[in-house]
Amino acid sequence: MSRQTPLFQAHKASGGRIVEFAGWQLPIQYVSLIEEHHAVRKAAGMFDVSHMTVVDLDGPDCVAALSRLLANNVAKLTESGRALYSTMLNEQGGIIDDLICYRMPNDGYRLVVNAATRQKDLAWIQQQVGGMDLSINEREDLAMIALQGPEAAAILTAISGLEAFESLRPFRFMMHGDWFIARTGYTGEDGCEIILPNDQAVALWQQLIDQGATPCGLGARDSLRLEAGLNLYGQDMTTETSPLESNLAWTVAFDPQARDFIGRAALEQQRAEGLQMKLVGLVLEAGGIARSGARVLTPHGDGHVTSGAFSPTLERPIAMARIPFKADGDVQVELRGKTRPARVVQLPFVRNGSMRDGLLDG
Q: Which of 85, 99, 147, 280 has its CA 20 to 30 A from that of 250?
């Protein structure tokens, strides 16, 4: 049976069209996906992301456990209030999940992982840290709201009086009573993600509406993250792909050499042999949408679309695709038995609310 977040009734009252996603009942949109998308790019929108899994780790062996579990180096979190993005790999270098890791004020750590991979992630973590001195606590008592867009900081300050948030840098967080407020997000815009007790979520949601934030659904969340070139687990990265071929090499910390994280040997071998595939952006002419799985034909061999949608900012179809490493420039995408021209571009498609300079040149 599908689960409901603490905001489920608020979504229904606001006209949210509910769908099942990763075992949860969540709004796909309210009135218009396009309007919700533009609200985030131009003003502020908010998302119920309470389906995400929050896991707190405490104990003397936290650093040792996370140093082995994560491809990024948790030692970079030199003090509380800091966060980093990382993948969690299997021995073959395949991506089990992507997550954000926060260093908490009590010297413990908080992970926020994907809803669809919850059971797999928790089982993997338990398996790998067996015998270590730490506790693993899934926080089902907490909800999570993402407030995103150029006006997000002003709205949060108006609600909370928390002027210090204005100067909080990306991938930092602060505590405000029972609220955990991180300057992070999944839209390519400024904003925050607020983790708070379940029984406070509805009141905050209404306060955000009263301050002018637009409720947004999963549809706008997907188009926003695609424009921002942000991977979706299960499509743009899987257990069959490594971070090196998923445009995520920047999240892998090979230094120090002594840190033996899971999947390291496989990544080192892949790096030494050279990549065969890469993840890129595609811009298509007006016409059909290139959905996940669509074949991409290049002079160096075939690839496939991992994510595709209409871009409200570019006003044309875009996609992310995994293609042969040497491929570049003009390619063809197969849609319903016919090929359509597309052009390989550097990600992201959108930066700071606008189409990246020169994206449609050439």
A: 147
Element at 95 (helix H, strand E)? strand 95-103
- Which of 140, 258, 265, 242 shows the shortest CA–CA distance to 199? 140
DSSP 3-state of 319: strand
Distance between CA atoms of residues 222 and 151, nearest Å: 20
Q: Are residue 43 and residue 155 in the same domain, yes or no?
A: yes
**How far is residue 149's CA from residue 45's CA, in Å, rounded to a whole number?**
6
Q: Is 38 a member of any domain?
A: yes
Residue that is written with structure tokens 């949860």 in the block = 24
Residue 76: closest CA among 49, 103, 96? 103
Per-residue pLDDT of 112-168, as tens digits, reads 999 999 999 999 999 999 899 999 999 999 999 999 999 999 999 999 999 999 999
Q: Give the structural domain span for 320.
A: 276-362
Neighbours of 108 (CB within 10 A): 17
Q: Are 176 and 168 in contact (CB under 8 A)?
A: no
Helices and strands: H and E segment counts in the chain: 8, 22
Q: State pTM to two decimals.
A: 0.96
